[in-house]
Amino acid sequence: MSLLPSDYIGHDAAWTQWRRALAGERMHHGWILSGRRGVGKSAFAMAAARELVAEDGVPQPDGDHPDIRYVSHPPKNDGEARKRVDGKPFELARNIKVDQVRELQRRLTTRPTLGSRRAVIIDPADDMEPGAANALLKSLEEPPAGTYFLLIAHRIGRLLPTIRSRCRVLTFPRVSDNEMDAVLSRESPQASSEMRAAAIAAASGSPGGAIDFVELDLGRVHALMRRVVDHGDPDFRLRGELAGAMGNRPSRDKQLAAIELARAVVADHMRSVQGEGIPALVETHGALVRLAGQAPTYNFDAGLLVMEIGTLLANLAGSRTPANG
């Protein structure tokens, strides 16, 4: 099902700020859309960009718009690029490259095609390599006439402070449990109430993450991760079951979802950890964050990745302490 901008929960405040600025005399040229992955920032960016470039009396295309430039991860190499051209699955590069930003800047030397405004979406901007970020900074410092930048950021702290200082920030909050349940009922009606509850707990306020949980059948994976954290896995039996629950050849999407699921399990575990258990918790969370950053583009062996996740979670066993103990 294709969602309309109005279907996304938690966007009201962002739309209010955007449209107030759009109606003003001087629209700011740089915007950061900040929030968790899966809350609909990309959909907002595209809908907002279309509002920005549209002009009265000028027909607007339904498909790709000549005055909206979208920059994201390129194919990993020439071979992967050929796969994309052929319509086959392809691997992405780890970062948005400096050459992409420079090519974008060359295109920005021309006038917009249909009107007086042009939008540039970079998704996600926090995955730009250093050279790309520095190149973009120059455009933010001296933006071409009629050009506006929408930078999607899942982790705003990874953006250069100089980029952040030149942009207005639209914050997309986590979605409440009740609203998440409504989203799942609409988008994944096949999910049982138990599955929805597990998805909501695992996704930590991200509707996209909750839908992935259901569609990728991660219920058993979630249950096993919690057992590993609660009881440990001295004989590797639970880690073996975890690998089995993931399947022999899990898709890249399922691998990424499993990492995010493990992070959610760690976040839930945090509520019951005190004192000596905190360092292990911080170390485990940091390792999962690194995996989350690497997994979209690294060619991990799926079985080894699952075992590594299981081992990180097993290291937390025994860190739980009573609240008054």
TrEMBL record:
Pfam family, one: DNA_pol3_delta2
InterPro entries: AAA+_ATPase, DNA_Rep/Repair_Clamp_Loader, P-loop_NTPase
Example of a GO cellular component annotation carried by this entry: DNA polymerase III complex
Gene3D superfamilies (alphabetical): P-loop containing nucleotide triphosphate hydrolases
Superkingdom to which the source organism belongs: Bacteria
UniProt region (Disordered), positions on chain: 56-83
Basic and acidic residues: compositionally biased ranges: 62-83
Sequence ranges assigned to domain AAA+ ATPase in this UniProt record: 27-176
GO biological process terms held by the UniProt record: DNA-templated DNA replication
The name this protein goes by in its record: DNA polymerase III subunit delta
